[in-house]
Amino acid sequence: MGMRAGVRWLRLRGAWTDAGMATTEFAMVTLAAAALAAVLYKVVTGGQVSEALRSVIGEALGARY
User: What keywords are assigned to this protein (predicted)?
Assistant: First the structure.
């Protein structure tokens, strides 16, 4: 039995379902997004980036910090 025939046979018998795939994919994407947000938060609140942002905002507003 070839690979395609085996997969077709499993699907016909109901032994192979993708019922939980959407939930699993959603959970993985949510976890990856949360990890990326945590890394970006650490970078933005770091010393050099924070000072650069204050400088850019200060120049844009015409004020000194």
Answer: Membrane, Transmembrane, Transmembrane helix
